Amino acid sequence: MVKQFILLSILVCVVSACASSLDASYLPGFWKTVEWKVVSSGQVIDNQMDFLFTTNDRYAVDYGSQREKGSFYLAGEYLHTKEDGALEKSVRVTKLTMDSMIFEMNRAGSIEVVTLIKVPQD
What is the pTM of this model? Predict the structure, then answer.
């Protein structure tokens, strides 16, 4: 009985850890990058990375000179994106509200923080 209780407790913890602590209902819409910087140096990256998330778990991102689209999901504190025909990537979301999002990503071994705001669509 004790073993069953321990196994059940572990299972509950594992399932809880996989469930997202972020509210996915905040994601659908257009998100504009307002700040992107390298944590270690404070260097501001002056590039575009604007997202569109849809209610059917699809996303598109506009880098200015390049575009990407695919599917997404939230798990724990991570936003996972899988570009159509490519590998899955993930970023750690440190803040997600109705109108702002901040995430950390590891790009070429360097941690970068991206701040976005939700832009109302007409």
Answer: 0.80
